[in-house]
Amino acid sequence: MLKVTISLEEDILQFVDQYAQGNRSAYINTLLAEHRRRILATEMIAALKQDAEDAEYQAEIAAWNSVAGDGINARAYYNTLSQPSAATHLCQIQVVFNTLNN
Questions:
Q1: How far is CA 97 from CA 1, 5, 49, 88, in A?
Q2: Residue 82 has pLDDT above 90, yes or no
Q3: Residue 20 carries which DSSP code?
Q4: Same-domain check for residues 16 and 44
Q5: Are 2 and 43 in a shared domain?
Q6: How far apart are CA 94 and CA 91, in angstroms?
Q7: Same domain, 28 and 8
Q8: CB atoms within 10 A of CB 101
Q9: What are the backbone angles phi and psi of residue 2, rounded to the nearest 5°?
Q10: How far apart are CA 62 and CA 65, in angstroms?
Q11: Is there a single domain that holds both residue 60 and residue 90?
């Protein structure tokens, strides 16, 4: 972890001290990590919505879906991978998107 110096308004510092339980750094780090997670989730949903509106992308997904029943047990295969490929991530994103749209 890196050390940094920041300036806070007095009322913000009082708020941090009220909830930090003696560890300002951990509290601020936790807040920022959660904020980052929310931003990334919002960006992911926006990207998935954009993909849903992209006819060319949807045609490509449909083409890939036509070979999805080729006898490969996708879940078992995925579990054997130490580092999932980009195609695996694309499949996961598509599953998340389908879940969000239902």
A1: 34, 40, 8, 14
A2: no
A3: S
A4: yes
A5: yes
A6: 5
A7: yes
A8: 9
A9: -95, 150
A10: 5
A11: yes
Residues 20 and 67 in one domain: no
Cα(85)–Cα(93) distance, integer angstroms: 12
Domain extent, residue 8, equals 1-53
Do 38 and 79 share a domain, yes or no?
no
Burial grade of 93 (CB within 10 A; 0-12, 13-18, 19 or more): middle
Min mean pLDDT across 36-40, 52-56, 73-77 is at 73-77
The number of domains in the chain is 2
What is the DSSP secondary structure assignment for residue 4, as one 8-state letter? -
DSSP 26-78: HHHHHHHHHHHHHHHHHHHHHHHHHHHT-HHHHHHHHHHHTTTTSS--HHHHH
- Let me know whether 70 and 98 are in one domain: yes
Question: What is the per-residue pLDDT across 7-49, written as a single tens digit (0 to 9) for each?
Answer: 999 999 999 999 999 999 999 999 999 999 999 999 999 998 8
pTM (2 d.p.): 0.56
DSSP string, 77-90: HHHH-SS--HHHHH
